[in-house]
Amino acid sequence: MLKEFKNFILTGNVIDLAVAVILAGAIGAVVNGFVTDIMMPFVGHFTGGLNFADLKIVLDDAVMGADGAVTKPENAIFYGKWLNTIISLITTGFVLFMIVKAYNKTKKKQEEAAPAGPSEIDLLSEIRDLLKK
């Protein structure tokens, strides 16, 4: 059983899948950082300094105690954070689309570069014909 598990883990498909999952997580973090740290401040600059993360609909205001401490926090729908997530999703999808497109382009070139040689049957037929002569 241990040998079967070892063979399963060491097959190329499992290792390729593990590498793909790790790279996808890293690409997601890079794209998320790009959206939140570069793209959204740039968009905010052209929208009058608006920070999408601060956009919300307040359902219940916060209740303050006599000492100024918050006794009941504000209840709000933070739709700005959701907009940031949607923008991040679209950007991640676009980046992954560009990566897959570039990969497919190189894959097609590799397929075209490898000419199809004669099959085993063709070679055997040719040898047979040469021996008949």
Number of domains: 1
Q: What is the fold named in CATH at topology level? A: Non-ribosomal Peptide Synthetase Peptidyl Carrier Protein, Chain A
Question: Number of helix segments?
Answer: 4
Determine Rg (CA atoms, Å).
29 Å
Write the layout of secondary structure elements.
Elements: H1 2-9, H2 12-46, E1 57-60, E2 63-64, E3 70-72, E4 75-77, H3 79-113, H4 120-132
Antiparallel strand pairs: 1-4, 2-3
In words, what does this structure look like?
The protein has one domain: Orthogonal Bundle (Non-ribosomal Peptide Synthetase Peptidyl Carrier Protein, Chain A), CATH 1.10.1200. It is mostly helical and 133 residues long. Helix 2 packs across helix 3. The protein has four helices and four strands; from the N terminus they run H-H-E-E-E-E-H-H. 68% of the residues lie in helices and 9% in strands.
Quick summary of this structure?
By secondary structure, the chain is mainly alpha-helical.
Output the keywords.
single chain, 133 residues, mainly alpha, Non-ribosomal Peptide Synthetase Peptidyl Carrier Protein, Chain A, two-stranded antiparallel sheet, 4 helices, elongated
